[in-house]
Amino acid sequence: MERSLSMELVRVTEAAALNSARWMGRGKKDEADDAATSAMRDVFNTIPMQGTVVIGEGEMDEAPMLYIGEKLGTGLGPLVDVAVDPLEGTNIVASGGWNALAVLAIADKGNLLHAPDMYMDKIAVGPEAVGQIDINASVLDNLKAVAKAKNKDIQDVVATVLNRDRHSKIIHELREAGARIKLINDGDVAGAINTAFDLTGVDILFGSGGAPEGVISAVALKCLGGEIQGKLLPQSDEEVERCGKMGLDLGKVLRMEDLVRGDDAIFAAT
Asked: Using CA atoms, how far apart are residues 130 and 137, in angstroms rounded to an integer?
């Protein structure tokens, strides 16, 4: 993939962030999302690439822009898969909060998992703990593994978890183990990325969030040397059927190479 593409993609997320920022604190999350989406699409279409949206704002009949299957770019240049979240944290922007992101990921055509729009159970760590986590293991066992890898006591391990009722069991187990928790109200892409930076003070991410965001997080962590594992969590018979049609094994642990194949991928966020 051409290196010049990297800086072009930074312009895409910058435009989305700047356009949505005009809606900061106005209590209108849909307008903020629309602003980010339209700006992202406009700049994408100036870039010399042949992109196809594989993770976007919804199916063609659900989203006017950046829908799954939409073609992006000038029609010249590399063939790539595109995953976007024009505004991760619409509620954050609407309420005037911090840490909303405009994010995208691209990889060579066929290399991104076409994740359905449903929940995914996730566990993520930064470079120091790569190869030590297991999404099928207990919270305590994963804490022990990360503590050992990072040469610290469990009491000094900080886990980040989306602040949702569905995570009450995980939160209880983390506190029983003696670990510390950084609860986040929105944005588990940012939560996953934070595990890769010492200055954030975050060691591991637990819990469920959107499956598309799991793929975007995987690209980010691949670029940063971290790791994420996931398992799809369908909430209805319709979602189970959709996974079957897509050829996805619901019992399978989705590892880095399942989420994003190869090493030629780009992640951008603003």
From this structure: 15
Please report, for the chain, the start and end positions of each structural domain, with discontinuous segments joined by +. 4-108, 119-253
Q: What are the backbone angles phi and psi of residue 150, rounded to the nearest 5°?
A: -100, 5
CATH architecture of 119-253: 3-Layer(aba) Sandwich (3.40)
Distance CA 109, CA 80 (A): 4
State the average pLDDT for the chain.
Answer: 94
CA 118 to chain centroid, in Å, comes to 13
Cβ contact 211:116 at 8 Å: yes
CA dist., res. 68 & res. 122, Å (int)? 23
Could you tell me which CATH class the domain 4-108 is placed in?
alpha beta
Q: What is the pTM of this model?
A: 0.94
Long-range CB pairs of 152-156, under 8 A, 24+ apart, other chains included = 154/178, 154/179, 155/179, 155/180, 156/180
Distance, in Å, from the CA atom of 103 to the CA atom of 82, rounded to the nearest integer, reads 11
